[in-house]
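During the second half of the funding period, the structural biology subgroup turned its attention to how the target accommodates small molecules. The most pressing case was thiamine diphosphate, which had performed well in the primary screen but for which no bound structure existed. We therefore specified the complex as follows and requested a full 3D prediction, including the ligand pose.
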Amino acid sequence: MGDKTGILITYREALKQALREALLSDERVFLLGEDVGRYGGAFAVSKGLLQEFGPERIMDVPLSESGFTGAGIGAALAGMRPIVEVMTVNFSLLAMDQIVNNAATLLHMSGGQLNVPVVIRMGCGIGRQLAAQHSHSWEPLYAHIPGLIVLSVGTHEDARGMLLSALKSPDPVVIFEYTYMLNLEKEIPADAGAVDITRAKVRREGRDISIITYGAGVYKALDAAAELAAAGIEAEVLDLRVLRPLDEASVIASVAKTHRALVVEEAWRSGGIAAEISARIMEKAFYELDAPVQRLCGVEVPIPYPKHLEDASVPQIADIVNAVKKMIKP
Amino acid sequence: MEKAQYLRLLYQMLLIRRFEEKCAEMYAKTNIRGFLHLYIGEEAVAVGVTQALAGDDYVLATYREHGHALARGMDAGAIMAEMYGKQEGCSRGRGGSMHLFDGQKLCGGNAIVAGHLSMAVGMALAAKKQQQNRIACCFFGEGAAAEGEFHEAMNLAALWQVPVLFVCENNYYAMGTALRFSHAVQELEKKGPAYGIETAVADGMDVLAVERAAREAVEKVRAAGKPYFLVCNTYRFRAHSMFDAELYRDKSEVEEWKKRDPIPRLSDFLLTKKVITEQDIEDLENRVAAEVQKAVDFAEGGTWEPVEQLTKFVYSSD
Ligand SMILES: Cc1ncc(C[n+]2csc(CCOP(=O)(O)OP(=O)(O)O)c2C)c(N)n1
């Protein structure tokens, strides 16, 4: 059986190993995106892959997000398994027409004739002082779109595994990767590979409160939970992982156990994932609650450049700890 | 040309060069963070083109815009303070290196590639509707010219006949993607006529050539109220940003281009023609060094915006 001994790996290396494995295991797979080849990937995730797989499978493309994303969708329709890399979510708005109006709708519009097995990866998030146009967290925008499968890579295990499962999907998958975590090292099993992409996952068990989060919030919530444990509060951390279609059952199950929920996300508050989770809890688990659902979200401001203002724009570990303490001992 | 004019060109290019060298140093010391895209090697383009513009013309640039900001006469201290993230910065510290703003002197600092081109068209449209004599001038790389946004903006400008000068700073690389990998037709100057836009090419390593070409272009744009496409061939001596291992080009290629460095090119020309002396250059260097030091002092003496003001400027009423 597989090797369960742990290996220490960076988030970047986990993403890269997944890419490599995908390219090795299916000839139809190819990577296309800006600077994925000669530059080595904007974030060095695909470094060395051009040398290993050649320019037919590691395709550098011109600045033309709408064009190459549309081409990826077309290639998927016509029998290939392209991985489209949009350098960061910030530039994905230029590709959004293709993603929303083509990838997400073709199956339905064609009465089930045309499915679109394309995988679109994008770097995402805040934390590197890149200011308003380069710090977006737009998972909610994509999670709004029926027809898409939207994945958020909050852990190293998922960095290693989500892409592989996404490539098996008959339908378009958008994957958010967090550039802030690229150099972060964590342990994963040596045989880590494809992971389930239909369910949320409890990352830490607890009985007092559910901290429900995703993406860049996961490790923050785990750190907060560790701090809370020292103060005698056992928080459960639920990593949503799949932002569409939402795994509502796991959310409800966790709330039914802890009777309190704090939803944490870096994206803006209005109309976000936290709003959706909160509404689902109200609809399906209202009578399980011992306290109103609370949200900790990104402040509704274009992200400013200076570190102290950037930090103040998204929930930090201390904010999570404080919010939980308030909910438990009002 | 008068000696004073020559000296101004040399002064502006030197200021950009030394200012940015200082920025790189401050980046290494972590006083500047985020992305930092240096213009070193390309100074002749911004300096040459801005000579031809009027003070109230609109100028829009990219995230590689420190040179344009300085050439437009923005205060070096306010620019440095912006890069430090201090509230005395030209964008109150909110934008950093990629988002320098100063009214119409510089409408950004735009970091979504090619996103500012259609805004330039709109500013030119507004000038036309209001019967002003202003023009809009936008700078962008050859990488940007592959975006749909570029083609849409060119077509709109020609269709509407509005006074906008498109300046393509062709430095042959878009991050690590060479011109030949991003354009099927590599003669960028062929893209203007395809839209019925008058086009010219200038040696972007020669500030005098750029200035000449820009003056001709701006005169036409202003007189005829039509768009114009100016391609300046140039080269970036430094990495794309501070996170670039430069795997995509040979050191020897960079060294070749450095022989065409626009600064010694102008100073050597002026020395040979005996327009200036070594002493003039030394004086300029001293003036520039003092100005850069003043900018750093200003930035270091700047203050942080209180966190309580985080949500200011989301709406005009804030
Ligand atoms: C729409 C968009 N796509 C991608 C990027 C990332 N990016 C920033 S600069 C750049 C290269 C642009 O090259 P070019 O237009 O030639 O200008 P240069 O940087 O060489 O001055 C890329 C890909 C971006 N900022 N915006």
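Two results from this model are relevant to the next phase. Chain A has twelve helices and 14 strands. The longest helix of chain A spans residues 11-25.
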